[in-house]
Amino acid sequence: MNAHRIAAIPGDGIGKEVLPAAQRVLDEAASRHGFALSWCELPWGCAWYAEHGTMMPPDGIDRLGETDAIFLGAVGWPGVPDHVSLWGLLIPIRRAFNQYVNLRPARLLPGLASPLRECGRFDVAIVRENTEGEYSEVGGRFATPAGDVAVQESIFTRRGCERVLRYAFDLARARGGRLVSATKSNGLVHTMPFWDEVTAEVANGHPDVEWRRMHVDALAARFITHPEDLDVVVGSNLFGDILSDVAAAVSGSLGVAPSANLDPTGENPSMFEPVHGSAPDIAGRGVANPIAQIWCGAMMLEHLGHPAAAADVLAAIERVTAEPALHTRDLGGTASTEEATSAVIAALPAR
Ligand code: NAI
Ligand code: MG
């Protein structure tokens, strides 16, 4: 049997609850489709940090490099500053493996209510640049006679912009043929005009995609006022990060929002993790919504070349969300993580 080697990093908080839940679903879907997932369990995160002073061992990246994909829960826990946990695990993985696309689909699943009073069709794919941009280490803090100053530089390279924009335009071509690029060229006068220029160049190679640029503030408002207008939205690291949380909120809950960190060249393993964090406020109680993590798993199966198994997992998710009795608390229901997970497994189409 063909077994894929998958690194499983539950991380912290509800990551330790939703990751094993999703593993159960994926194992079941895989066995029905005649393949297997060989999990390599890695207990890295804030507990590891407390013991070793680092978020992962020094050979962590090398070990991950030997796998076919990385399945991650969430990292971050009170007591470890968030920038330490993020820059000690997630960001090194994204950068070492050139996962330059952060793909975050969001749609209104059957049975879920958007907090928007009027939300018709909502089905977007946010493509976020994942390796450079505003999230850079260049800068510092300075004491000046006028007071303390903090400086944070953004790095936009032509190669970095071009490759993520090309991915987004290709995706738009494969979906509804429409794309919006997030900009802010009125306020950020160096990086954003550059981003816009590269967008226009890439757009020239995609005459079949109808596209426009929008200032990110107006675009954020658009998600609320006319969510049905949007299809593929591409943005820099910071803009994509913020817009995808807005999109997750529109679709009902962070608990159903998946994301994939992709190296589209296939040279390195890609990483699949929910948009949400470790949710310390509900961790350890067995009430976290496992849907986001399970949907991430479906994206991973698709990436590993099993679209039929991925489609089955998505179909099972939709059957469960359609049933209010199976909703977890974040969706207004009373189901536990375990109940929702077992329901997804039970809803997998028979093979
Ligand atoms: P969060 O996403 O952990 O929680 C925000 C709110 O959403 C909380 O009220 C939480 O209970 C709820 N929530 C999130 N996921 C849920 C789920 N699956 N089911 C039900 N409710 C859910 O964001 P927060 O509180 O800002 O961050 C907590 C920690 O997580 C921090 O240490 C942060 O740095 C880290 N974090 C890690 C991320 C990652 O690993 N990629 C992403 C975001 C935050
Ligand atoms: Mg975010």
UniProtKB/TrEMBL annotation:
Pfam families: Iso_dh. It is an enzyme of class 1 (oxidoreductase). The keyword Repressor does not apply. Residues 5-344 form the Isopropylmalate dehydrogenase-like domain. InterPro entries: ICDH/IPMDH, IsoCit/isopropylmalate_DH_CS, IsoPropMal-DH-like_dom, TTC_DH. It catalyses: (R)-malate + NAD(+) = pyruvate + CO2 + NADH. Its cofactor is Mn(2+); Mg(2+). Its EC number is 1.1.1.83. Keywords: Manganese, Metal-binding, NAD, Oxidoreductase. The keyword Metal-binding applies. It comes from the Bacteria. PANTHER family: D-MALATE DEHYDROGENASE [DECARBOXYLATING]. NCBIfam families: PRK08194.1 (NF006048), TTC (TIGR02089). This is D-malate dehydrogenase (decarboxylating).
